[in-house]
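Notes from the pairing session

We agreed to fold both candidates in a single pass and log them together. This is the raw record for the first candidate, unedited. Please don't reformat it; downstream parsing expects exactly this layout.

Candidate A
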Amino acid sequence: MTSSFSAWFWSERFWLPENVSWADLEHPPPGVEYPRVGDILYALPLAVGVFALRILFERLVAKPCAHILQIQAGVHRQAQSNAVLERVYLSKTCPDAKQLEGLSKQLDWDVRKIERWFRIRRNQDKPSIQKKFCESMWRFTFYLGIFIYAVRHLWVSPWTWNTRLCWDNYPFQHQSPQQFYHYVAELAFYWSLMFSQFIDVKRKDFFIMLVHHLATIVLITFSYANNMLRAGTLVMCVHDASDIFLEAAKLSNYAKYQRLCDGLFVMFSISFFIARLVIFPFWIIHSVLIESWEISGPYQAWWLLNGLLFVLQTLHIIWFYLIARIAIKAIFKGKVAKDDRSDIESSSDEEIHSNSSKHPNQTSGPNINSNLNGEKRDH
């Protein structure tokens, strides 16, 4: 049964172009290395290491930086102790009008008082600005580091400037150590995001991000198994470029440097448009869809990989619509407005009492707490 499933799953007709077999890829010429699917499994234990590294980074680097910028954890106002409301809250954080009316009769409380209790109770579970700052600083550091690493080896690669070379003698293409490390690092990072997404700051686009992470993981894994490393590294590099500006804008926002935040967010919007709505579809997808068809011809996995690229492009269009709305407000109103993709619950001043003091020249700015993947990047 297991062998039959394995033979079906690793069917050469699905994964490889015509007249190419797995046996052809098992014995590369001397000095040449082809990708081995089993090697990509190193990303799974590495993802645990990436998550552990993130925890250490946030505690030892990001949190001290937050203290330097006077971003304290803050203390949420505590809801009045009530066993009945607490039981309801554990099953439903936002009860409907009928439930509120029933609770009002049961407790002899005014409905507005009960609504206020649930609002305060929800805000109790909200992460602090400091936690958001630490999360964004980790993402900013990773995106910046992996982008610099990718540019260093892609800049000297001829297929970066002539994408038709991505399919020259495909799939018999040498895998360089830089390509392997790039792939494993990116895949481990996105696996760690899949795990941490359920404990990180919850946002309105949770399910969109879940689809994004799944599509990215499948795309990275499939492209590695098919030895599409040249095109794959280009895809990852283009996605990481704009996420750097996003995380930098969020860090500036949490630190209450509003002008810097506005400028970085506009830069993010421009870089997102250029990278994901111009370069990605008209340069990379065009190469994977058109140039690879002309040079090596389509096969079954080819259709799936192109489908995943179009899923990502659809998400890019949705996100850019949301980004453009915020950027336009930033340009014409001089202030980044609250992000439509930000935290599910917003906290009012009366419900959060912060222990920190702000700089005299800092003004309280709205939250742009979005995560694109980007994020990448979240996002």
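Candidate B (folded immediately after A)
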Amino acid sequence: MPRRSQDNRELLRTMKCNSSSLSSSDLFSLAISATIRGLEENMRSVVRKVAVVGSGISGAVCASALARNGVAVTVFDSGRGPGGRMSQRREISEDGTELFFDHGAPFFTVNDNDVMGLVHEWEARGLVAEWKERFGSFDCISAKFDFEKEGSSKKYVGVPGMNSICRAMCHEPGVDTKFGVTVGRLEWLENKNSWLLTGLDGQILGYFDGVVTSDKNTVSPRFTHVTGRPPPLDMILVPELAQKLKEVPVHPCFALMLAFSEPLSSVPVKGFSFKNSDVLSWAHCDSSKPGRPEMSECWVLHSTFEYAKGVISQTGLQKPSNATLTKVAEELFQEFRSSGLHIPDPFFVKAHRWGSAFPAAVIAAEQKCLWDEGKRLAICGDFCAGPNVEGAVLSGMRASVKLLEMFSCM
């Protein structure tokens, strides 16, 4: 017998045995306590089901928090693995060398105390580590570096890849993650007071008491440009949120993955931003991060927003062709080499389009997420709280709180 049920029975026995010595107010208080305990027990016996769309850092954080509080969570992601902006790619060079690239966010910083508490937990689990290297900026006109002051900000990375955090949270007890599944429709069933999710192929994915979507494409016209179908979430269902969700602008980016046989001795830092470049915005040495293989020197370069927009305006939002990616790789590398840094020939070169790299606006800065109480729908992500990893984490945390508060009242 559950301990809480035993406690309730003991309380009732106490009431019966001592009824002659207890005042009516005491008996009333004891009865209320027994009733409340019974309601709490019944509430805990009902397992709530929540669907989380997107396994990036925001969705993963939300899923983990919900599962730890007794909610059954199913995560849906159209990709092959978790990550979003925390993604990592595995590549094989022509000579068979295995290479890994964090082609999204190179690292993240933390200022919020709640997020820092979560990061400390991740550190204790070996999921993150501080990236203790030299950083700076490079002026393409003067060809000089400006070095960052030591200790200016701690930079954290996932170990052994940026996606390690998301992967761990998406496989915690209570979380069932389904990769390679694109949610085609989110349907609110008024008569069942629940959500029905279906895939692009019409397959029923399940009924849920609540939904969290951390994928901005769920409500974005970009979904239509790519699939030819309307976005999964019909704005008519959430009229109070529709105006904010009407358009979530994003800045695209191209990432260039490079591998060298020898260290780039002419580069005195392991990560730097570019000044006065129309093509490149950032470069970092992946292989210098904690827990990375040291067989090859791997670098990732990010393009500027303007460069990426220029390419996409010509090629469209569909998956870029190999010819387009080859041309982008050549242009990004030539900009890198023309900087005067004496860059040798890499043995591996590959470009990747990051179509929704950074939100161009934040739509819920104070609330951290969008919330529809009547339908138990939370929308979270960096576009809600801040255009970085910390903003995405804060948004996922807030979304989980909204749902847990709602479930505690049901």
